[in-house]
Amino acid sequence: MLRVFIEACKVTANRLFMATIKDVAQEAGVSVATVSRHINKKGILRPETAKRVEEAAAKLAYNPNLLARNLRKNESRVILIISPNVTNPYYALIITGIGDTFNALGYSAVLFNTNEDPEREAEALKMLSRRRADGAILMANCCGNVNLGKYIHEFPIVQCSEYDPALDLPHVSIDNYSASAEVMAYLIKLGHQRIAMISSENNYISTQLRAEAYRNVLKEKQIESPEAFFVKASRDYSFKSGKNRAKELLNLDPRPTAIFCISDTLAMGAIIAAHEMGLRVPEDLSVVGFDDVEHTTMLHPFITTVAQPCYDLGKASANLLYQKLNHTDDTPKEVILEHKLIIRESTGTLLNVGLPHQDQMVRVVN
Amino acid sequence: MLRVFIEACKVTANRLFMATIKDVAQEAGVSVATVSRHINKKGILRPETAKRVEEAAAKLAYNPNLLARNLRKNESRVILIISPNVTNPYYALIITGIGDTFNALGYSAVLFNTNEDPEREAEALKMLSRRRADGAILMANCCGNVNLGKYIHEFPIVQCSEYDPALDLPHVSIDNYSASAEVMAYLIKLGHQRIAMISSENNYISTQLRAEAYRNVLKEKQIESPEAFFVKASRDYSFKSGKNRAKELLNLDPRPTAIFCISDTLAMGAIIAAHEMGLRVPEDLSVVGFDDVEHTTMLHPFITTVAQPCYDLGKASANLLYQKLNHTDDTPKEVILEHKLIIRESTGTLLNVGLPHQDQMVRVVN
DNA sequence: CTGTTAGCGCGTTCAA
DNA sequence: TTGAACGCGCTAACAG
Fold first, then answer.
1. Residues 30-89 of B with CB under 7 A from strand C
2. What local confidence, expressed as pLDDT, does residue B364 receive?
3. Measured over all CA atoms, what is the biggest interatomic distance in chain A, rounded to whole angstroms?
4. Average pLDDT, chain A
5. I want to staple A258 with a disulfide (CB 3.0 to 4.6 A). Which of A181, A265, A286, B166 is the partner?
6. Nearest chain A residue to B278, by CA
7. In this complex, how many residue pairs, one in chain A and one in chain B, have their CB atoms less than 8 Å apart?
8. Is this model's pTM higher than 0.85 or not?
């Protein structure tokens, strides 16, 4: 027995020898089938046999070779997370939610950054055919990616946060239209009539729906709004482009009294732009953001925004994918999570002159 | 031939049939070995044979099963990225660097968030013994993790950014000591004598080295510094704790004229604290940050900071691990990348009263 | 240049 | 309750 242990520690190549199921079987004096059964808790062994197997496994520091198990069972127990950019904290939170959920389920998550490059996306998806992964979660697929079509009917794929309505894929997100409509209703209730939107050049479904609600609510309330009040910031919602677009907006005559930004970073830019132009927020201008993941409570005024349950978005897509993986065929086509309009300091009633004036351009947090 | 194709599209279970190397061989009328050779470009086939193989593979939409290949070659072509928190943009950038590099090398990267939980870390490392991964990059290991010892001599592991000097593992980082010393020299050259440091409660090697340099430079320059000038912010360098610590510092009598923060978020907090207390930056107080990944150029004053090459840090650790994977035994034990002190607006000469006073508490970016 | 064959380590029949 | 034998799909000897 000792000899076996010593052998087990012998270096092969430049790496230590790793015990296989065969070694364990030999050490325990049983067959590999018995070891396998015990490890996978299939069938019951005689207590004595079980003990012998366990001791042998412990002695040899046995770990099942997943490569072999996966080949045998024809599954990789790996899922793909395909995201445009981990650096974005919004995606980072979703990814954490996905990872935590799948790890608890015994899966590993492979991360692919596409950088919005369709070729990178195609490369990632190819891992499905190569059996490197059992399924994938797509965060913001390159719309019109011709490659995607080949995979969607063949592999379990779920879209998270953004999705292509033309694709027949299940997705999880918030109700962007309602959220946007809520913001508009709120601003109008505050007395605002000249409401601008800083949207984005990207073509995400969230962007489209938020814009749609913006226009529709205005129409419903019979508020005429100049086309110049609808502007588009950079694809990635950069702080700088938010500031620049806001400045253009505020130079208009008449200028908007409220700006609805489709991201917090944009909203931060808008607030800074306003300050720079001598306008007070919210006294002279109301600003609303979206997401509630960045900068919202760093400087005063704290930003009014729509909070998205990012972590749960990731969790929900993970669970949805897990269902598909297990051929639970009644998986929903769509999972909508609750958003929440969080009213903070960057919005107020129009011409709210009664309140004391803040001398500090940007107030600071206590 | 057509029959084969139709067969290939037949659904098995609820998923499409996927061609194996055997199917391709059959379709092309050659042996599996020939197909394998062609795919792996080992040995040369007769042009005609090669063509037949290629056509067969194309017709059957063949993709090699990595599970099988990996089992055969006893490698997973997967590496682990073990990080405390992807949400931190500093780590996110490093992760992107690692991922890009390894993807180009034909590897996939599995991401494990440990949340600084030793158990999660241990679980991640276990994937090495289970042959789910060939190696790992550790971003900030839970110091004193007893489990780690079992793996470091058995598997290729590299530490990135943070490292445990007691562990015999290669690592890549910047020269934190020199960087910190440079900042101190710079501040002293500016005329500052009362220099405080906002460090962190965490026990990272970077934190230790930066503190060490802070103290040593002070000693070398024979500058007496009260112990109260050295304070510790939260483990995660939160904005809020930076602001609170700075306030305490600025309430001291005499107060520091410069604060060296070991992260940009902390520096941002310090600047806001100063403004709140009616102090101008840099006229009344100089502030230095570290990392150059967040908030440094969002609001004026733009923050003077030490830039770390995060993406390259990731890239370098990936290359280092790749070398270890290939048994290149002359791999360096340590890779130090260049940092850079970036002087912006938050630092200035002491008592710089000649310059015009900024009325705005926080100036804004053009 | 090509084919035959033997495993990689495991899970799973089918018998006993 | 246990064991023998097979095969997942692939690569690498070896033989021709």
1. 30-34, 37, 43-46, 48-50, 68, 71-72, 74
2. 38
3. 90
4. 89
5. A286
6. A360
7. 157
8. yes
